[in-house]
Amino acid sequence: MVQDRLVPERSLAVDLVPTEIWLLCWDLCSYSEISRLSLVCKRFRIISLPFLFKHQSLDLAAMEQGLDQNNFVDRLDYMRRAAVRVENLTDPSFAALPLIESWTVRFGYEHALSSKKQDIDIEDLRLFNKLRARIMETFCKTLHIYPNLSSLDMERYTVDTAFLTMLAGLPHLRDLRLHIPDKSSVSYSGGNLTMPNLRRLDISRHALLLDGFTRRISLPNLVDLRIGVVRNTEVVFAHVAERFPLLERLGVDVIQDYSSEPVPELPVGSLPNLREIIGPQGMVDGLVPGRSISRVVVGNGGTWAGATSGRRFGAFSRSLAAPRQTSPMAATPSVGELSRGLSLHPPAGM
């Protein structure tokens, strides 16, 4: 009887809590915790549902890692549920709602999974691959139906004309990250494409993909470019300066160039808005002179010899403005980070 009286009181208490209080819960919970809360609390689910649908993720590559006969059934079940989820998200009655704003997807690589066939006793890997192909096809064919999609982070093994044309057809896409392995297939035979609203592009080391974006795809409003690996520096940076004149931030992880000379300096007046450079020393030497650079992060991802601080500040002396911040790429925790970490675990007896 006491329990019967408590039930309506609990329900009433939930309804009396202002929406603002529920919204504050998002700052105290992780994304997965919010998902779990939404399953047991109807009120919280109603409020948080739009937030939960904003950022979608799908990691099929993780299902391939460590795949063996002991976990094959469970992972196959995950693939089936993932296929149903992607297909449900593309239902016209749902997709028309402006909920989904970003997608993070790792599709994995069929050739890597096929190589496991000789190592593990799984009779039918074809079913696993068919499910992944079904998910990929559904996802790529229906990506354009999300009206508010602004961010796409994708790891994909095959890039072709249809895929790049699909990307160019996303009207509100502002942030794009593509990770394409070197051994993957990249081919593009169409005409020039335009992505007018793209502001940030992060592409991996594949030379053909970089060539496609710097030669065949027009990005008139791109301001932030990050490249994994650059091989032919003179050609690449010349095309970057020509194709992306509004660029404000340029980053390169590794430059594969066996010369000890810095990147050739770009013509005076090119990249006038460039303010931030992230990359090896030779890249800094070539891009700082003649520009109002405000921040530089110097990394060791290159093959130049004798990259000294003297060369770095020699380049800064020819800059139009003194940089406000220069720092090496963080390879190890700073003293402050270590101190904060140690303070969380004081020695016994203190």
From TrEMBL:
Q: Which Gene3D superfamilies match?
A: Ribonuclease Inhibitor
InterPro entries under this entry?
A: LRR_dom_sf (IPR032675)
Could you tell me which residues belong to the region Disordered?
Answer: 324-350
The entry's protein name is F-box domain-containing protein
Species classification: Eukaryota, Fungi, Dikarya, Basidiomycota, Agaricomycotina
Q: Which organism is it from?
A: Favolaschia claudopus
